[in-house]
Amino acid sequence: MPALICGSLAFDTITTFPGRFAEQILPEQVHILNVSFLVPTLRREWGGCAGNIAYNLHLLGGRAVVLGALGVDGGEYLERLRSWGADTSLVWRDPELHTAQCHITTDRDNNQITAFHPGAMSHAHKIAVPARAERADLAIGIVAPDGRDAMWQHASQMHAAGIPFVFDPGQQLPQFDGSEHRALLGMASWLALNDYEARLLEERTGETVQAMSRRSNLKGVVVTLAADGCELWTHGERAHVAGVAARRVVDPTGCGDAFRAGLLYGLERGWELPRCLVLANRIGAVKVASRGPQNHRLDGVFDGL
Q1: What is the average per-residue pLDDT within 4-27?
Q2: What percentage of residues in the chain have a pLDDT greater than 90?
């Protein structure tokens, strides 16, 4: 059965500055900052959380129903999604705005300057999660980073439709206050965060991760720890799932989305959470060895599972 993936669809424009930002920016002159960086390399990548998760789910042999927004320039991305067999019936095409775009410039010390244009993503709330009677085949879902209103509405609509879902606030976590986060936690079936986001969510809600995992509706809280794997919290108890060493470290962009695709794949098939997380860690390790969020392959990730 397919998984409903609610989240952003975006283009990532990635450039490299061969010098150091620190050598170009004078701290005593930041009040009149006016700088230009020559960037001899440029790549344009397919991105966005929903697109990245759907890509990895496709590689695993899963099925995705994508709910997200594309702009007037999103025709190629729409065809790309369809080429994987993804269901795009819930993708919004904005007639005026451009697709969300992230412009990232990295210097030789791996410092980054990023500009994000939300574009059509800011209208993602115009798409509704279908009622259970309309799409009884949706076994599971995820609310990944997207427009703020879209995340709130899609979580509420999935909860109302009885679709169990993973709540993955990601970089949009600061957009919600403590009471809103507590309400969202009350709707989700699973929670996925990295370790920084976990600390921030604890601060916002006044609840520890351990306490969150004791909520009767939450079947598990997953906290990723980069190369160290992840923590799994269930009913107040912590377990550690070891990380997987990457062949090489090339580009972390999209690793979290790859991880969540593995989690979704296992949950939809009724796997126990530790087994899901073993797969998820393997996929993250494969992704980090490849440049861009949608260029890797997943050979051998099921070995021994």
Answers
A1: 88
A2: 79
Question: Is 284 a member of any domain?
Answer: yes
Residue 118 included in any domain: no
Examine the residue annotation and report whether 257 is marked as an active-site residue of this protein.
yes
Q: Is residue 195 situated within a structural domain?
A: yes
Amino acid found at 88 = T
Q: What is the 3-state secondary structure (H, E, C) of the chain?
A: CCEEEECCCEEEEEEECCCCHHHHCCHHHHHHCCCCCCCCEEEEEEECHHHHHHHHHHHHCCCEEEEEEECCCCHHHHHHHHHCCCEEEEEEECCCCCCEEEEEEECCCCCEEEEEECHHHHHHHHCCCCCCCCCCCCCEEEECCCCHHHHHHHHHHHHHHCCCEEECCHHHHHHCCHHHHHHHHCCCCEEEEEHHHHHHHHHHHCCCHHHHCCCCCCCEEEEECHHHCEEEEECCEEEEECCCCCCCCCCCCCHHHHHHHHHHHHHHCCCCHHHHHHHHHHHHHHHHCCCCCCCCCCCCCCCCC
Name which residue leads in pLDDT, 64 or 34.
64
- Check 12, 107, 146, 257 and give the catalytic one: 257
Is 18 contained in some domain?
Answer: no
Range of the domain at 198: 3-9+48-98+125-288
Tens-digit pLDDT profile for residues 72-109: 999 999 999 999 999 999 999 999 999 999 888 888 88
Count structural domains, the chain: 1
| pLDDT tops 70 at residue 180 | yes
CATH code for the domain of 177: 3.40.1190.20
